[in-house]
Design a protein that fits this description.
Blueprint (H helix, E strand, L loop, with lengths): L1 E6 L3 E7 L5 E8 L4 H19 L3 H4 L2 E6 L2 E3 L4 E4 L11 H9 L3 E5 H12 L7 E7 L3 E7 L2 E2 L30 H5 L1 H7 L7 H4 L8 H25 L3 E5 L1 H4 L4 H13 L3 H6 L5 E3 L6 H10 L10
Parallel strand pairs: 1-4, 4-7, 8-11, 11-12
Antiparallel strand pairs: 1-2, 2-3, 5-6, 8-9, 9-10
Helix pairs in contact: 4-12, 8-10
Length: 309
């Protein structure tokens, strides 16, 4: 069996998978702040999973995988920082898990773990490559190609939020101007909505229809998401692009709206027409713990079945 844990901004969500990749049990706790508090919550989740699985589950678990926000050294399992979790100093999370549970532990960035889980979710579509695009407060993506996470030098691959897309756009926290994150990132959206709408959900509510300023903002966001789909497809050549994250979850019919923009853009480009981008896009399912499943599969020893059913 393999344990997977997703350390989210709100919840620590764990799953335990059989050696065939089938889910056995799930458990959650609220996410505290600070490394010691988070580790305690993770252990509560893992202990609950082991108790729910079977009396001797601790002996049957072969690995533990964790997906967490922030900068992660995947070779050492050290979380170098995770600002949103109040982790400011290097945190040897994998070693702590190994010491407590006596099994190998693997720690990865949460977006990369979710990409692995999304690949398992789409196993029936028999695709060889996939990009998961996370649109939340920030924007990032991760690609799985031929069963492997594409990492790049220093694990930097996927930082699409800091690709400039609008030379006349807003200043980005990274020091550049007009980055994708300044267009579709939740923080940037809320800054632009000040005094016009209380939330992204309000922006896309039926009673906001017809308000010119809000129409412009909706179009900006949806076009930006469509551009992200186009960008990652042209960069990675992915068979599927899965959209997820807090911004995506608050837009009704987001796949339909983005697909319509992709079709409109393709009407003026033979290249885009040939790519059929609107057929590649999927919405991350709300009821499946993709990040926790992906964390478990990332930790699976070589030879384990990684279907993640």
């Amino acid at each position: 069996m393999i344990v997977g844990v997703d350390v989210g901004g709100s919840n620590v969500h764990g799953v335990i998978l059989s050696s065939q990749g089938s889910g056995i049990a799930e458990a959650t706790r609220d996410t505290p702040r600070g490394p010691e508090q988070i580790f305690a919550a993770m252990c509560e989740v893992i202990d609950e999973l082991l108790a729910a699985a079977q009396p001797d589950a601790r002996d049957a678990v072969v690995a533990i995988g964790v997906g967490t926000p922030g900068t992660v050294d995947v070779r050492s399992g050290v979380v170098e920082n995770a600002v949103n979790l109040a982790v400011s100093d290097p945190w040897a999370l994998a070693q702590l898990l190994r010491d407590r549970y006596g099994v190998p532990a693997h720690v990865d960035n949460d977006v990369k773990a979710t990409a692995r889980g999304a690949m398992a979710w789409l196993a029936s579509e028999h695709v060889s490559s996939l990009v998961y695009v996370n649109v939340g407060t920030g924007v990032a993506c991760a690609c799985v190609a031929n069963g492997e996470i594409v990492r790049g030098a220093d694990n930097i691959a996927g930082e699409i939020g800091h690709i400039p897309v609008d030379p006349a756009g807003a200043a980005c926290a990274c020091g550049q101007v007009g980055c994708l994150e300044t267009v579709i990132g939740g923080g940037a959206i809320m800054a632009r909505l000040a005094g016009q709408a209380q939330s992204i959900s309000d922006l896309f509510a039926p009673d906001a229809e017809g308000k010119t300023a809000l129409e412009t903002e909706r179009a900006r966001i949806l076009t930006g998401i469509a551009l992200a789909v186009e960008l990652v497809t042209l960069t990675y050549g992915a068979d599927r692009v899965v959209l997820g994250g807090g911004v995506i979850s608050r837009i009704p019919d987001v796949i339909g709206r983005v697909s319509e923009i992709l079709r409109t853009r393709a009407a003026h480009s033979g290249l885009l027409t040939s790519l059929r981008l609107h057929e590649r896009v999927r919405l991350a399912p709300a009821g499946i713990a993709l990040a926790a499943i992906g964390a478990a599969l990332t930790a699976a020893p070589s030879g384990e079945d990684q279907k993640g059913k």
